[in-house]
Design goal:
The complex is a heterodimer.
Chain A lengths: L1 H24 L2 H22 L7 H8 L1 H12 L7
Helix pairs in contact in A: 1-2
Chain B lengths: L7 H13 L2 H13 L3 H25 L5 H44 L5 H18 L1 H25 L14 E4 H12 L8 H4 L9 H34 L3 H6 L12 H31 L5 H18 L5 H42 L19
Classes of the chains: A mainly alpha, B mainly alpha.
Chain lengths: 84, 387
């Protein structure tokens, strides 16, 4: 739990510091790109720590490639030597 | 964009560390659980396919040696398709970096520091990677040059110390069910790490003496093939099929067997250094390329402005790619399917389109014989090949 609070706080601080640092030095594209990346990261982290039932990337990919992945899974695992 | 340059030798070394990377850690477990004692043969099969992939990448990369795949993707397919290709690569490298980070976090968390939270393990390894990425490709190249001899020497010493523990009988009977199990076991290996070598198409423009890349890259590929085969053989001969299949980090567990009287014992953490080195280099290269792809995708001016924001995205992303270890087996099936598009389909299509357009151009030039080359089409001409 402790690291979660630290990382969430760090993301918020990073958003603010990034905005302050890049507002005058960098181009608008740089500023908005970096702020967007930070905010997406922060949002995703908060979704994860609040235990919202978010399907993982592997599950999402499994749904996309499902019709193809299941026969491949059966083919790869049939006659498997050791079920580790 | 980064103005730094690396030599062909540095490129080859970082590609070796990249290919071996985290794959060597998890490879024996996956291979042996499918192919049993014939797992070493899967590495050879995949190694041969890997050589074919490298030939494809070299052909494409040398058509446009001063540009990345994002840049010539836009030139060849137009603004919209080119941007779509850029977005595909951006997501692919982002997910790959998150995977690598998660693998390192899982490895440290399960064998070295089991009491430490996963996020902390990942953050600790991510901080030097961010710094390396911030310093640029030259520093990454030199880091590879410094770390490679250490990794190799520890690997060779470990292999020599394990000779008394090896039981060649574990490798027999060979091919009891033919080579089909070996082919099956090669499938997860294709996605992780063979198709990931597409990353070289982002690094070729940073290499100074490009005429030497081809030679060194083939040597690297053969080197990874030999290392992978040796790792599988050693693991099977020392631990046996059953233990290797049940151990998620079999290569690390093999080092536990090193025991020289009571002088040298519990050497596994020292051996773990090799895998931390290769995994760190892989993470560093992946992070750097992810940042460069994003810079080229959105025409950002300075890549350094994106390095730290990406670290804050990668941490939650690595937690999200795999929610638990049960999903790991499923990812071995799904991941190669995802990787085949950026790793094979897009480079192959770009090579065909590039050949087709240059042939069309040559044909039309031969027919019309224009007095001067039109300015708008000049960029479609492939640049002279270094060889």
């Amino acid at each position: 739990m402790g690291p979660d609070y630290i990382i969430t706080a760090a993301i918020f601080v990073a958003v603010i510091l990034n905005f302050i640092a890049l507002r005058r030095q960098a181009s608008k594209k740089d500023l908005w790109s970096s702020t967007t990346i930070l905010l997406v990261g922060g949002f995703l982290y908060m979704l994860l720590i609040t235990d919202i039932p978010l399907p993982s990337f592997v599950i999402v990919m499994g749904h996309i490639f499902g019709p193809l992945a299941k026969p491949v899974m059966n083919w790869v695992t049939e006659g498997r030597v050791v079920h580790g | 964009m980064d103005k730094g340059k690396i030599s062909a030798q540095q490129f080859a070394l970082i590609m070796y560390l990249y290919i071996i990377g985290t794959a060597a850690l998890v490879q024996p477990h996956t291979l042996v659980s499918i192919a049993g004692q014939d797992a070493w043969f899967s590495v050879i099969i995949v190694g041969i396919i890997q050589l074919g992939l490298i030939t494809l990448y070299m052909k494409l990369g040398f058509r446009y040696p001063q540009q990345t795949i994002i840049q010539y993707g836009r030139l060849l397919t137009g603004k919209w398709f080119g941007s779509a290709i850029a977005v595909v690569y951006m997501f692919y490298f982002l997910i790959l970096t998150a995977y690598v980070l998660r693998n390192i976090g899982n490895f440290i968390g399960s064998v070295v520091l089991p009491q430490t939270p996963l996020v902390v393990n990942m953050a600790v390894i991510l901080i030097p990677a961010i710094y390396g990425c911030f310093l640029g490709i030259e520093v990454i190249g030199r880091t590879g040059e410094i770390l490679f001899p250490w990794a190799m020497s520890v690997f060779i010493i470990t292999a020599l110390l394990l000779i008394p523990k090896m039981h060649p009988g574990e490798l027999f009977p060979m091919f009891p069910e033919g080579i089909t199990p070996s082919i099956k076991a090669g499938y997860p290996l294709l996605g992780f790490p063979s198709l990931e070598i597409v990353i070289c198409l982002m690094l070729i423009p940073f290499v100074q003496n490009q005429q030497k890349i081809k030679k060194y890259f083939y040597i690297t590929s053969v080197g990874t093939l030999i290392s992978g085969t040796l790792l599988s053989l050693i693991t099977i001969m020392v631990l046996g099929v059953d233990l290797t299949a049940r151990s998620p980090y079999a290569v690390y567990d093999v080092a536990r067997e090193i025991r020289i009287e009571r002088v040298l014992e519990r050497a596994e953490v020292i051996v773990g250094i090799i895998w931390l080195i290769t995994s760190f280099m892989k993470l560093l290269i992946c992070l750097y390329v992810t940042v460069i792809v994003t810079v080229q995708c959105f025409n950002v001016i300075s890549y350094k402005n994106l390095v730290i924001p990406f670290s804050f995205l990668l941490l939650p992303l690595s937690l999200w790619v795999l929610r638990n270890t049960a999903e790991l087996e499923w990812s071995g099936i799904v991941y190669p399917m995802m990787a085949v598009f950026p790793g094979f389909v897009i480079p192959a299509v770009l090579l065909i389109v590039g050949n087709f357009r240059s042939r069309n151009k040559q044909g039309s030039e031969a027919q019309t014989q224009p007095p001067s080359q039109p300015q708008s089409e000049a960029h479609l001409q492939p640049q002279p090949q270094p060889e």
